[in-house]
Amino acid sequence: MTQRISKTKRFFMMNPIIQFFKFIWLSLKILVIVAGGHGGTRKAKS
Question: 25 to each of 10, 20, 21, 37, 41, how far by Cα in Å?
Answer without folding.
Answer: 22, 9, 6, 18, 24
